[in-house]
Design goal:
Strand order of the largest sheet: 3-2-1-4-5-7-6
Oligomer: single chain
CATH topology: Rossmann fold
Helix content: 25-40%
Number of domains: 1
CATH architecture: 3-Layer(aba) Sandwich
């Protein structure tokens, strides 16, 4: 059983070089683009990212919404995020915390996301319940996580995505059921070309 300290510690070791990792270009950035497109962000919305890492997606969202909060359990990853420039006119806050225990008020965000993070959560169901709690009624989420299928399994094996040593990949159907069990409705499994063989993209809402 993995512990939160173990997961955060591994990422703290990578923090200084994380943004230079080759996977940023061919994997993480394309996933971020799909997530941002699916979120349909609007100016004035309050955005939350859980598992924000060095802040790339959070800052990109803030450029549209004007307000964003990034949460990550690895302190050094959050330090790297804080060093990055904030989009002009935007307010961005960084919080060191786990998905399972978000230190945020109930119903305080309009939209939320998690991108290639959930397989590192110690308790997926607890993290999803926390996301549901902090989202306002009618709010929406987009989740993306490692879930190789079909031909994507070979690519995952070669790249290290989904390996049991570093990742615990999700079954797409089980992930969708967990989102529904957390109280979200209007679930949609998004398809996005070849990446859909490696990643499950799920959009959902909190009942208004």
């Amino acid at each position: 059983m993995r512990t939160l300290r173990e997961e955060a510690g591994r990422f703290d070791q990578r923090a200084g070089r994380y943004d230079r990792w080759l996977k940023q270009r061919w994997f993480f950035r394309p996933v971020h683009q799909i997530v941002l497109s699916a979120l349909r962000l609007r100016p004035g919305e309050r955005f939350l990212e859980v598992g924000s890492g060095t802040g790339t997606l959070t800052l990109a969202a803030a450029a549209t919404t004007g307000f964003a909060v990034g949460v990550d359990p690895a302190p050094r990853m959050v330090e790297e995020a804080r060093r990055k420039p904030v989009p002009p006119g935007a307010t961005v806050a960084w919080v060191v915390a786990a998905a399972e225990e978000l230190p945020l008020p109930d119903e305080s965000f309009d939209v939320a996301a998690s991108s290639i993070s959930m397989h590192h959560w110690v308790d997926l169901e607890a993290g999803l319940r926390q996301l549901h709690r902090v989202l306002r009624p009618g709010g929406r989420i987009v989740l993306a996580d490692v879930a190789p299928r079909g031909a994507g399994r070979a690519a995952a094996a070669v790249s290290g995505l989904g390996s049991r040593r570093d990742h615990s990949a999700h079954d797409p159907d089980e992930l969708a059921r967990a989102v529904a069990d957390a109280g979200f409705t209007h679930l949609r499994v998004l398809r996005s070309g070849a990446l859909s063989r490696l990643v499950a993209f799920i959009a959902a809402e909190k009942e208004a």
